[in-house]
Amino acid sequence: MEIIKSLEQYVCSLFKEEGSGHDWWHIHRVRNNAVKLAENEGADKEITELAALLHDIADHKFHDNDLSIGPRRAHELVMQFADDETLASRVSTIVAEVSFKGAGVDTPVSSLEAACVQDADRLDALGAIGIARAFAYGGSRGRLLYHPDRSPRLHDNFEDYATDDGHTINHFYEKLLLLKDRMQTISGRKMAEERHAFMMSYLTQFFTEWEGE
Ligand code: ADP
Ligand code: NI
User: Fold this and answer.
1) Which of 2, 66, 130, 140 meets the CB 3.0–4.6 Å disulfide criterion with 125?
2) Residue 35's pLDDT is what?
3) pLDDT exceeds 80 at position 213
4) What is the domain count for the chain?
């Protein structure tokens, strides 16, 4: 699909210097894993790839927690680059279904393609890369690494999740450690397991060092 090449260049130029873990290489990894999952699951590879390229085009975290701007921007870009209303609407629905919205908030998907993009995005929040991204994002918001007197807070609505300014270790409990059991595809869940185990051992080491060996 011609649009994939053009959008890749456009998205890369927008995000190549982003410093909070939402840079072009995040999108690149999500795209690759999403396509791999689509192959395993029998999803449409091109739609999956296109939605993966556009999944963070206007993330709510950087737009006043507005969840509608990402899907809207994705729709506009597909129209601009391919002038195809059906494609634009399929891609924007996937983009709307990707984001995590709080520990107690369900994020169902309405297509196999959305399942692949959501899983691929969540895989990039796990493991060694997930840990790096969490601290990069926390740092970009001036957050503490950890505070021993502030115990984990979980959220049952998007508003509370999005406005919480807790320390970054809290983010492991409010999101990262929950993802393994919420993967939408069988192959995604398998890939999540090793990354989850790595984060568990990372936390054990973190708390051991925090307490002073
Ligand atoms: P989502 O749309 O599901 O939030 P993104 O691709 O935008 O997924 O990336 C989310 C990543 O941003 C998280 O996995 C984490 O690395 C980082 N992040 C988001 N919120 C926080 C937070 N409160 N503290 C630390 N990192 C965070
Ligand atoms: Ni993402």
Assistant:
1) 130
2) 98
3) no
4) 1
Domain containing residue 106: CATH number: 1.10.3210.50
pLDDT at residue number 1: 82
Residue of minimum CA distance from atom 23 in ligand 1: 171
The number of beta carbons lying within 10 Å of the beta carbon of residue 66 is 14
Separation between Cα atoms, residue 72 and residue 50, nearest integer Å: 15
Q: Is 137 in the pocket of ligand 1 (CB under 6 A)?
A: yes
The mean pLDDT value of the chain amounts to 97
Structural domain harbouring 193: 2-210
Taking 3-state DSSP, the helix, strand and coil percentages for the chain, each rounded to the nearest 5, stand at 70, 0, 30
Residue 149 pLDDT level (bands cut at 50, 70, 90): very high
Nearest CA, atom 16, ligand 1: 134
d(CA 183, CA 192): 8
User: Which atom in ligand 1 lies closest to the alpha carbon of residue 60?
Assistant: 2
Q: Of all atoms in ligand 1, which is nearest to the CA of residue 30? A: 6
pLDDT number for residue 146: 98
Taking the CB of residue 9, how many other CB atoms lie within 10 A of it? 9
